[in-house]
Each structure stands twice: as structure tokens, then as C-alpha cells.
Amino acid sequence: MPERRVSPVAVSQTSTLVTKTGSWKYIRPLYQDRVAPCNAGCPVGIDIEGYMSLLREGRWDEARDLLLLENPLPATTGRVCHHPCETSCNRRQFDEPVSIHAVERMLGDYALEHPPSLTRAAERSEEVGIVGSGPAGLACAYHLARLGYGVTVFDAAPEPGGMLRLGIPEYRLPRRLLDGEIERIRALGVSFQCGVRIGQDVPWRSFLGLFDAVFVSTGAHLGKDLGLQKENVAGVRAGLAFLKAVNRGERPELGRRVVVVGGGNTAIDCARTAMRLGAETVVLYRRTSAEMPAIPDEIEEAEREGVQLVFLAAPVAFHAEDGRLRAVECVRMRLGDADASGRRRPIPVPDDRFTIEVDTVLSAIGENADLAGLPPELAVQESGVAADALGTTSRAGVFAGGDVTNAARTVADALGAGKRAAVGIDRYLRRLSDDGPNGTGLPALRFGNGNISMARWRDADPVHRINALNELVEFDDLNTSHFRRVRRRRDDRLSLAESRGGFAEVNLGLDHEDAVSEALRCFNCGVCNHCDLCLIFCPDVAISRRANGGGYDIALEYCKGCGVCAEECPRGALTLTREGL
Amino acid sequence: MSQVMIADRVPTHELMTSGHLACPGCAAPLAMRLVLKALGPQTIVVMPASCWSIIAGPWPQSSLKVPLYHTAFETGAATASGVRAALDMQGDRDTTVMVWAGDGGTFDIGLQALSGAAERNEDILYCCYDNEAYMNTGVQRSSATPRGAWTSTTPASHPEASAKKDIVAVLAAHHIPYIATATVAYPVDLLEKVKKAKAIRGTRFLHILSPCPPGWKFPDEATIELARMAVACRVFPLLEIEDGVRWRFTMDDDTTEPLQPYLRCQGRFAHLTDEQIAQFQSDVTARWKWIERQVAASE
Amino acid sequence: MKKVIIGNHAVSWGARLARAEVISAYPITPQTQVVEELSEMCADGRLDARFLKVESEHSAMAACIGASATGARAFTATSSHGLALMHEMLHWAAGGRHPIVMANINRALGPGWNIWTDQTDSLSQRDTGWVQLYCETNQEVLDTTIMAFRLAETVDLPVMIVLDAFYLSHTAEPVDIPDQDAVDAFLPRRQARFKLDVSDPHAFGALVRPDSYMEMRLQLQEAMERTRDVFDRVEVEWQQRFGRRYGAVEAYRADDAELLLVTSGTITSTARFVVDRRRERNEAVGLVKVKMFRPFPVERLRALLGGARQVAVLDRNLSPGRGGIFSEETRAALYDLPEETRPAIHGYVVGLGGRDVTPTVLDEIIDRTRASAVPEREDVWVGVNP
């Protein structure tokens, strides 16, 4: 019998793949990564989402290397940073933010225990001098060294570290960790010249002639006066000077009662340190706890240790006896309208006064940069050196960053400024324009509107994001149905008795297992982590894994454009666009 | 772990192909795809008339990589009984015979054959993907249509007057070894139930809620969300029933979401007044409580 | 081996000797003994088959379809309302080209309830695509049941064996029961042309669009046309092995007959007696028995009936508004004969709902036919009380 076109019964001979249902669609899915808010919110510009993603897969060394690509001091920042990443963490709106600082701390410690061999770009002939070895100077030195430059860091103090070493109490940052992290920088070829005050021991003019570029990061060390009479009576001291003395190993006599004036980290550090020296300690702050700029965890710890916090109060007079402070008279405050900082302005309630008997007052209402010690002809703005985002100052070849500029005075901001200045110096020395090769314009380097990525500057992104868009992922872009509520792990703390009794580190971080489970709580906002949900939920079998593990392919000739994949993507790594656009 | 990392728990092999003719966002092909992932290639599908008669592709195509027999509307369970009998005679006890039927073919026209097969405890897996009306013919009501719903035969001025038939209770009364409910929103739960069913001999019944964008009138992309909401607001409890007497919930938390958002995002319920929604809620609550009593009696 | 068995058990024996693998049935008088006997055979191991006691005839046929689609030899039996309930699935079986064999015990349809013989049930299914073979004796029932499987599996069409309620179904006759080995040699295991097979997966019965549906139906029609010759070959082989054959159409004392009776089923036996008596009186009366109704043996009937002066067709059935179905089919078959050889066709509706068709009734039919050169009307109802 001749072969017929039509079989005698309706028996299939082929699959439905002959029907290209992709022609039905009027919207199409776009598979592209976006920016997690933690990355955008990190002043250092750390690829937090990236290392969380690597940790999820157990790729520890890669996670460490990615972290070190952006941050030279993770063991330090994991302890002392005010972690705005956690403030911007989308998970905050779901249950509690990921304990990013604890994961960073664990990775930072891991990096000290398992030192990486840090990659360096090809060696360059230019030499850069850095004045000030605080976080800004260290970051700039580190990144420049990794970019191939010769770097020498100068500091007036006997050891490098700046405020990290001078100002931050040992119970928050054990010095062996800071030493270890500085050692890692030294190992990159950076040389340190300590005990040298540039501008005094070496004139600026001759100093500037020694280097192809200079980075000024001398910090802010001058305590602000309270502006009250008898401020120089015995018993009234600058808080920062007190901390420096303790950090040098001195144990100043404070008497029985100490009042700390201020609400920032210096104030809390002073209070907790004074308490460790045996004093009853009160912190006086003119606003309420809501406006207090100190790190909330630190405030909580201070209270736990017995520091008394008095809000809406400010000192108005010191009462001395025999040339020695006896009491501080205070006025009650109330909050008025918001001021320029966005915080509500404190207004004295004139007749509402009270007096606290006191032996020592530590004033911690802020520090000023020593502008007199700066290189000549450097333009100043407000109370700091005028510098742009990449640290460029009014003098060619001179860059500045950290507390000496008008930037926010945090360790993270200083590290970020140092990194940006390293890029600025690199660009200056290599005479690159704003939009030079490799898309080196600043916006392209930023995580969203956050800090810049050294990975992008070095064109060495090890995360290989897919068609990355520099667009922030908001909470509403996520599909949280795929997440379960899991409590954030609390850092372990030293017992109260041990905390009060000395300068041992109080915050013990998370144990290894809990730190890993925190990493697993990460939503990986905006970045595909190959969870397969798009593939699993595709009603049209149109999504498949790429053979090399690099994400997914969408078969647009079959995709009907239902949008389920984008709707169900837990992390906003899939979006929809009108067909034909 | 905070994320449901299901990649490792869903088999990667595909026994269904693209190019099938389901509407965009239809849950029915997804349900089939997941079920076949759990069953594997040693499966024969018997399919009475339903949307899937079209989704499977016109001759000479097939969207399935397993044998498929299209049969008449009311005959799913009976035809499958015959397939099973033939396999038994060939000494093949391993191939799974699966009926894949819609709610019309299960709750209505196919109920007699299903009841017969269940009573005989035929060794078949009967899957009902339930889109709560005759969708293939243009959204006419079935006995799976919820009270209050618009369909093309229950206009909004006189919406569906009867409560949805409690099909799992009907099947439970047959004392078959295994009954489960599932949705596409919880793929791992679905797969686990299918795997469990696969290992059991006798009649197994799987009731899969399958949201239908054009029939329920919601945007295509919301299919999974609708299935999830149906579970969360207890309209579609996830259950297992063994031997018709051992009932248990399979949801991992017992929080309940309000019914209102589930109903309000579907055009078929757009006409409902707050009082009618309250009535709906009391239907849902009453059934939930009844199931709770079955569960309690099982413990 | 000879046994005295009722017609229903002859069916059961046929299915057993044919080694049916899946049997699916639902009880209905007067069929019930067929499946009762088969269930005994399955229970005591004389027949290795899965017996599905389903909940309706519709499901019985659906289960046979499922089994047949999976490559098994499937069998069922029914009657009257049961057959009517199967109607949809009869189309499905034929359209799917499933070689299912079914026995139908002719019974009248209600209302009012009537359990006695009447061919209207099976003839109502003439357009479903089933081969229909009508039987006259219990031996023919058994032989036809076995041959039906061979025929069905050769042409990929379902086959219906039809026998009269009570006159055959419940009447015991001596039947020669062939040896199993001999039947096995005649009817080997089924080799399905298409089947549900996980190692070669295909979909069966999907949507077929207008561009292909006719081509499939044409092949169904061609298979039906082929069935006439295939049946002859099957019967020839049966005769070689077992010494019996029946013919799609049988002529009895038809040579030179001026009047030929056309019969089917058990009326044929009565008609043989009457024809013999008329021949003894030298009356040129003969008989043509139609065994095969679908496909209708058009050429055979033209050859046998062409040249007779008169033909009287006996119909124990009724298509209301038209009349006897065999007479209509016969008229249509002979219409193309040249006028000089074309007989006058007299249709008689007899024996509906089990009414006895006695020699007296047949004599009346012969006499009335010979008395009128042209038919009195298209269909004459005989034996109807006023």
C-alpha cells in the first residue's frame, strides 16, 4: 500500500515544538540583574549581595576575595561600622534585616586566618604619598597598591591606624585584628613612616615634590568646646583626648561620677570606657534617643553595662570648688522644628534646670579637622578641605578624603572616600578622561546611586551579573512569597561582669553556623542566584538553564509572554517589557 | 533556610514540550509538567475531553513525551481501567496509568466512571486539574464552580447558587488508599504528593487547583499568586487523606489570610457584595472546621 | 468435543478459546449469562484474563477501548439499552481502529420494557463503523466469535456478533467445541499495529482538523470494504481447519427460485423448513441468509438475488418512518441492476419485540408475495392484531 500523508488513526508523529507560540505575546520577559539596596547603601561600596551569593554556594575564598576587592579592613568594619547596609536591607520590611555586619566580620576574620594572595595590576612607576593612616588613608593606599602604584603612608602617631587605633576602644576593636589587616596592606608593598608630622617635620612644599600624587587624610582630632565658663577647670576634659589616653594604655583618674556630653559614638565610647575605669557614668544628650547618632547597638550595650542616659538635657554651667569640678548644671530641652540635618532642633526650657554632682565631664560633641596643618593653597569649604567625589582638591595632584573633608564622619565613609580617591589618583596619573576607555565614567562605577565598585573599575567583576542594569531593587520589586520568616541571629555578647571588668571584646559576633545562616537569609535582591523558580513556574517550558551554569535562556519563540516568571522571580532579576521594544 | 530553594528538589527532565496550546498564564500545563516530573517517563496518560485536549496539541503533534490516549468526556477512569488491565496482562506492574481530567470530566460527567473505578480500587492515578468551570467551551458553570461566581451560564445578576462540590469528600467515601490536594504554587508539595501516590497501588486521586486567567478574569502573570492565595485564605486547603479516613493538613503553617483580596482580584467575583463575601467566608470557614474535625478524628 | 450449550455460553466459549485478555462488562438480560460464564472461567483459571466488572456499558466499552489501545485482546457483551448507552464509544472504538469484539444479544428497546428479541438495537448502530455478523445457530455463534477476533485484528475494526435473545441466547444446542491448540494456530496472539507504549510514546485521538479528517474516514471506509474479502479468507481458513463455513451471505435452495426470501438470525432456520416444504411441492422458492450486515454484501446480494422474479425481505426490526432496515438496504443494493434482472422487492416487518415468527407467518408472506406482482406497499406488517 502506498505511504499516505494521513495515518489511519490520529496518532502523533511529532511534538508541539513545530508550533511557535512566541508569536502570541505582546510583552516579553527580560532576564537582567539589578542592584541590591545593601550594595547601594554601603559607603564603602562593597558588593555585599555578591559575597552573600558566593557564601550561599559555599565558595568561601571567592567571597573573601570579592569582599577584599572593595574593603581593605573587613574584620574592622565588621565590628565598628554603623552598617547602613542593614538599614537599607529589603529584608527589614519582611522580618528583620540580614545581619550583614556579622557576616562581614566572619569573612574578615576568615581572611585573616586564611590570607589570600591578593591580585595586583601590572606595576606602575608612579609613587603616591599618603598623609594620615586612618581608614581613608589605609583604603587609598591599599587600592593604589593593588592598582600597581608605589605607596608610602605617613602618620604623626607612632603606629598606623589613625582614629581606628587612637579613638576606638579596644573592647570594640581588638588591636591584633587591626594590626593583622594593616599587615595585609603592608604585604602589598605599602611602606609606613610613622611618627612623622608632614607640614611640621617635613615642609609640605618639599613633601609634595617627592610624589607624583598625594592623598591627604589627616582626619579630625580637635575636640569642640562646649562654650561654657570654667571649661578649663580640672575635671572637664575633651572626650577624644580621654579615649586616646586610655588607648595608649593610660588609666586617667576620673573620680566617682562622670558625665559625658554628646550623643555620638565618641560619647558612648567615652561613657563605656569611663565605666570600665570604675566611674558611675551619665550621658547627657540634648535630643532624644531617636536622634542619637551613635550606633544603636552601642547605645544598647552602654545601657546594659549600666551607663545612664539622660535625654533632652544640656549643660549650662560648671560648678567648681577648690579649682576642681563639683557639679554640672543642666537645662531641660524640648524638640522644635527640624533643622538642616533633618533632625528636630533642641530648644532650652529656660526655667527647668537641674544639677548633677560630678567629678569629671567628658565633652564629646564632635571634632574639627586641623586645617592649619594642611598644605598651602588648598581650598577649604566650611570646616573641611574642599574635595569632589574622587577626592580631587583645588591643587592638581593633591587629593583628600575622610574626616578632613566635609564628608560624613564614619569609618565606612572614610574607607569609601579612600577608595574613590584611589580611582581619582589612578585616573589622574593615567590621564584618563571622565568617560575614558572601559566606561570609566563615575555613574557606571556606582552601585546604583551608592559608592563605586573597584571590581567595575578594574573590570574584574567575579560575580558575572547578567545584563546588569544599574537600577535599585525596591522591596516591592521582590516576590516575598518564596521566603519564610526567619529570625535574625543576635550577636553573642560577653557576660556583663566580664564586659565591665576590662577591655576584652564585648561583641563576640555570631558563631560560624549562625553567620552562614544569616548569609542564607539574604534575598539576593536583583541578582539571579539560580533558584530555578522562573524555570519551574514557566507554563510554556520556555526557560532553560544555560549549560555553563551562567543563568537561564528564555526561548522567545515559545514564550507566550504571560509574565509568570517575572512575577514569581523572588528577587526582581526578571522584568517585563513591551514586545518589540 | 529562609528561601525555598527548590531547584534541587524538582527533577530537571521535561516530559512536556513548548508550543502547546494553553492560554498564556494557564496553570494547567504547569500542573501536568510538574506531575510528569514526579512520575517520570514510564507513564501512560488517559485524557478525557478538557482544555488539555487542546493543550496537548492537534494531530499529528503531541506536547507530551509519554503515551497519551484522548478519550470521551465521561470515560477517563473507565478507559484507564482498561489500559491498566492490559498492562497487567502484559506483566507490566510498573507503568503508572494516569487520568488527566478537568473538573467537568471529574465532578460532573465523569463522576460515575470515577466512582466505579474508585470502588473497584483500580490501580490508577486520577488527577483532576480544577479550573472551576467548563473553560474549554467558554466558561460555563460546573459543579466545581464556587458559589457566587460569574460564568457564561451564571450571569452576574444570577451568579452560581450552589456551593462547590466537595469532591475529595466524595472520593474519601470510597475509601481509596490515597487522596491529596495540591496547587501549582507549591511545586515541592505537589511533587512529593505525586511521588507518594506513585508508590501506592490502587486508586489514587489528586485534586489540583488550576487558576484560569480568562475564566477567572485575572492578569496572566498572577496565576501562581492566585493559587497561593487560595491556599492561604483556606479556599483550597492542602490535604492528604489515606484510606478515606486518615485526614491531615499538609500546610506548614496554620495562619489564615483574609478572603477578600482573593475574591477581589478576580473579575468573576467582581459583582459580590460585602454580605455575599461574608457568606462565602462562612462557607469556607464551615468547610475548614469540618475538615479539622476529620483531621482530629484521625489523630 | 461436543457439548450441549446455550447460545450465550457459546459466546463465552468463543471468547475463551480466542484467549480474550481483557473483558469488561455490565449485566443486562438477556446477555448476562455470557459474562457470568466468562467470570467463572476467569475465576477458576480456565481463562487468563482481567475481568472488569464496570459500572455501566458505557464504561465497559471505554475500558475495552483502553485495553485494546494498549495492545490487549478485548471483549465485551451487551444487549439493547446497554448497546444504546455505548453508542458514543462505539464510534470511538471504530474511529480509533480498535479490534474489539462484542456480542450483542438482540433485544427490543423500551419503553415499555421488553426483553425479547428484536434487531433494532444492533441495527441502530449501523453507522458507528462496526462490522456486524448475525448468527443463526449456537455453533455459528461460537465459530463466529473466534473468527471475529481474527477478522477484527486483520482489518483493525471492531466486530459485533449478533444473536437473537432467547431463541439462541437461552436455547441449548449441541456445539462442537474446537481444541484450544487448533484455535491458537488459527488465531495467534494479537500484534497491535499501534499501541500505547512507554518505549515508543505517541498521542492517540488528538484534534484532527478539516484538512485531514476526511482522509482518516476514507481509510475507515476502505477498511470496511476490505473486510468483505478478508472475511471470506478467514472463513476459508476456518473451514480448512474445522470443516465449517457460513458465508457473508448464504444461498439456500436458491437455484432457479422465482421467489427468494431474505432472512437473518434465527428466522432463517424457520425459513429453511418452510422453503423445504415448498420445494417438495415444486414451488420455486429459495432463501438467502444475510450474515454480514456491515459491511453490507452488496455484490453478493446482487449476484444471488438478480434474476429472481420476487424477493421477500423479512425484517425483525424497524426504522420508524422508513420501515424494515434489511429491505431498505436490499432495495438500495439492487437498484443498479438492469431492469430485466431486477426483482420486485417485498418488505415484511415481523416478530418485533420477540413475537414468534412461525412457519404459518412465513407461509402467509410467501403466498401474499406470489399473489401480488408488485409489492402491496413498501413494508407489510405481518401478524399484527387488529
Verbal overview:
Chain A has 581 residues and is an alpha/beta fold. Chain A has 4 domains: 21-33 and 528-578, Alpha-Beta Plaits; 37-116 and 463-521, Fumarate Reductase Iron-sulfur Protein, Chain B, domain 2; 127-161 and 178-221 and 369-437, 3-Layer(bba) Sandwich (FAD/NAD(P)-binding domain), CATH 3.50.50.60; 235-365, FAD/NAD(P)-binding domain, CATH 3.50.50.60. In chain A, strands 5-4-3-6-19 form a 5-stranded parallel sheet, with helices on one face. Chain A has a 5-stranded parallel sheet with strand order 8-15-9-10-11. A 3-stranded antiparallel sheet of chain A has the order 12-13-14, with no helix packed on it. In chain A, α7 runs parallel beside α14 (411-429) and α12 (265-276) runs parallel beside α13 (296-305). Chain A starts with 13 loop residues before the first strand and ends with a strand. By secondary structure, chain B is α/β, with parallel strands linked by helices. Chain B has one domain: Rossmann fold (3-Layer(aba) Sandwich). Chain B has an 8-stranded mixed sheet, sandwiched between helices. In chain B, β6, α7 (187-199) and β7 form a beta-alpha-beta unit. In chain B, α1 (27-39) packs across α7 and α3 (76-89) runs parallel beside α5 (111-119). The longest helix of chain B is centred in the C-terminal third of the chain and has 25 residues, at 274-298. Chain C is α/β, with parallel strands linked by helices. Chain C folds into 2 domains: 2-242, Thiamin diphosphate (ThDP)-binding fold, Pyr/PP domains (Rossmann fold, 3-Layer(aba) Sandwich); 249-381, Rossmann fold (3-Layer(aba) Sandwich), CATH 3.40.50.920. Helix content of chain C is 41%, strand content 19%. In chain C, the strands form 3 sheets. In chain C, strands 3-2-4-5-7-6-13 form a 7-stranded mixed sheet, with helices on both faces. Chain C has a 6-stranded mixed sheet with strand order 10-12-11-14-15-16, sandwiched between helices. In chain C, strands 1-8 form a two-stranded antiparallel sheet. In chain C, α6 (138-155) links the parallel β6 and β7 (159-164). In chain C, α1 crosses α2 and α6 (138-155) crosses α8 (210-242). Chain C starts with a strand and ends in a 5-residue tail after the last strand. The chains are: A alpha/beta (581), B alpha/beta (299), C alpha/beta (386). At the B-C interface, β1, β2, β3, α3 and α5 of B face β3, α3, α4 and β9 of C. β3 of chain B pairs parallel with β9 (203-204) of chain C.
